[in-house]
Amino acid sequence: MSVSAQGIPGVPDLTHPVELVQLGSQILKASVLLVFLVIALGIAIALLSFSLRRLPKEQSLFIGEWTLRYSELLRGFQHLALVLILLVVGFFLCSTLSNRYHYWEQAKVANVALLVAGDKLEQSAPQVRYIVKEPYTTTTQVNGKIVKINETRDVNRFLTVAGSQIQVKLDQIPDIQGRSATYRLDYSADYKVVNQLENINNFIFEIPPPNGYSLLESYKVERAGTTLQQTNPGDYNFAFPLQPREETSFRVTYKAQGGPRWVYNAEGQLLSNFRLIAIANFSGANFASGITPKYIKVDRKSTQFTWIYDTVSVKNPFGVYTSTDPIRNTGIIPRLLLLAPALFLWWILLLYLSIPVSLKNLAIAGGIFFACLLTLTYLARVINAEFAWTLISVILLALSWGLGANFRASLAAFICAIVGAVLPVFGLLVSFSGLTLSLAGLLSAVWLAVIHLYGWYKLHPQNR
After folding, report:
1. Which residues lie closer than 8 Å to 295 by C-beta, 6 or more apart?
2. Is 280:248 a contact under the CB 8 Å cutoff?
3. pLDDT score at 78
4. Which of 404, 444, 464, 346 is nearest to 83 (CA)?
5. First to last CA, the chain
6. Which of 26, 37, 102, 269 qualifies as a FRET site for 56, CA 20 to 30 Å off?
7. Residue 258: per-residue pLDDT
8. For 289, phi and psi rounded to 5 degrees?
9. What is the pTM for the complete model shown?
10. DSSP alpha helices (H): ranges in 353-432?
11. In sequence order, what are the beta bridge partners of 412?
12. Taking the CB of residue 202, how many other CB atoms lie within 10 A of it?
């Protein structure tokens, strides 16, 4: 995994042992505190009952009333404890899943970046150099007097290449180290040089190999069919004579490996009679630097790019690279998972305000909700997240129907699942989340108003 693929800062992850131990200690402290609160309330009621022992009638009324309230409190405490347990466990489960999904997204981005970034094969245009003697004057001091000295120095001048006919064939191969894809290229180019000068007949043809190669073989420079020899190892300057008004041609061929991009750099020169044909024998090839080819020919297994210019000066290197599909919608699933406990609480409150909810149904509802989110987390890696949630919502709604004890209660649970779970989750998946969440909130308020203000369905607390 890339070093840049880090988890979400500040979000707990249960796969980390230190955080798991801290979570366990915090839950233990909270559980002990709640137990002591319940015990303390029971002791308080017992002490009040003991203080009223001399008043049997008041004691009987007090004990009966507080026993009923205490039993209701314990029943409510059971529901509250279960909701808190589901919220806490669901939060840490979702935060862990959020971190895992964030790791996966960042690793995916890093792997895609390796395909289009990093080293590149860059071939520079050749230069035809000649040397002229240029006079210059320096001053020095001799015996206290300023003396001018006239000298000459060698100055490099460059001759414009009269024509460039280039063809490069690119094949994509896996990197041996598994880091990314690289290019294997077969380069051949014909360059024409015309001596338009009157008094110069000695030139140097400079054509270096591509920058960024990992392997270079069969590098050869020919003039009029004769192979030119390098003067020094690593020296790619070839001296040649050329009389005024004469022309000659050079052919440069080699095979190289590197990449995963190939570009041609004009080095700011004015290119004349320029023609470049790049044949990419792989899918996903595209032209680089925004310099649009004059012709693009796409076959089943290759793409041919052709640049043709009579006279042109190109500032940026242009060529071929492997394009990839853009990675969109990153961070959506981690955001949804972090907000999932709030969405669960939203749904549970709607259920409590709409139908009688038993402890069993509460546990089942929590299991359904978080199981659906778990399924969405991993299903979204292979298919579109919105489509995945649409499929999961069908299962969620079908299971929610069973939370009701009769037809009206089942219909109420079904509607609560739509406005409290399906729409909010869907709203966090789409780009216009605010509109979708606002619509879900409005529908929730309308639903509660209908069942409570218009008596569409009455709650029966005794049936909970």
Report:
1. 304, 305, 306, 308
2. no
3. 76
4. 346
5. 51
6. 37
7. 83
8. 65, 10
9. 0.56
10. 359-379, 385-401, 407-417, 423-429
11. none
12. 10
| Dihedrals phi, psi of 395, to nearest 5 degrees | -70, -45
Q: Please tell me whether the peptide bond between 260 and the residue prior to it is cis, using omega within 30 degrees of 0.
A: yes
Q: What number of CA atoms fall less than 13 Å from residue 119's CA on the CB side?
A: 16
Instruction: Say how far apart CA 429 and CA 423 lie, in whole Å.
Output: 10
pLDDT recorded at residue 268:
80
Cα–Cα separations (whole angstroms), residue 203 to 124, 133, 200, 242 = 19, 14, 8, 7
What is the H or E stretch that residue 8 is in?
none
Please report the pLDDT score of residue 165 as a whole number: 94
What is the pLDDT, as a whole number, of residue 164?
A: 93
Cβ-in-10-Å burial (0-12, 13-18, 19+) of 206 comes to middle
- Those residues with Cβ within 8 angstroms of residue 106's Cβ, 6 or more apart along the chain or in another chain: 2, 4, 5, 6
Phi-psi region of 185 (alpha: psi -120 to 50; beta: other; left: phi over 0): beta
All residues at 6 or more sequence positions from 349 whose CB lies less than 8 Å from its CB, including other chains: 420
Q: Shortest CA distance to 351 belongs to which of 455, 463, 439, 459? A: 459
Coil, helix or strand for 447?
Answer: helix
Q: DSSP labels for 212-276?
A: TEEEEEEEEEEETTEEPPPSSTT--EEEEE--TT-EEEEEEEEEEEE-SEEEEE-TT-EEEEEEE
**Please, is 235 exposed, middle or buried when counting C-beta atoms within 10 Å of its C-beta (0-12, 13-18, 19+)?**
exposed
The answer to whether 153 and 136 are in contact (CB under 8 A) is yes
Amino acid at 460: H
CA distance 37 to 347: 28
- DSSP structure class, residue 211: B
CB neighbours of 162 closer than 8 A, spacing ≥ 6? Answer: 192, 193, 194, 247, 272, 273
Q: Residue 394 has what pLDDT?
A: 93
Which residues, at least 6 apart from 189, have a Cβ–Cβ distance to it below 8 Å? 164, 165, 166, 167, 251, 252, 253
The token pair at 126 is 């050749």
Q: pLDDT at position 186, please?
A: 94
318-322: strand order across its sheet: 121-124, 261-265, 318-322, 285-287
pLDDT recorded at residue 111: 65
pLDDT along the chain (464 residues), means of 10: 47 57 65 71 64 56 57 70 82 81 73 63 90 80 75 83 93 65 89 90 90 89 87 82 91 89 86 92 82 88 90 83 68 83 89 87 90 89 88 92 86 90 88 80 86 62 41
Helix, strand, or coil (residue 136) = strand
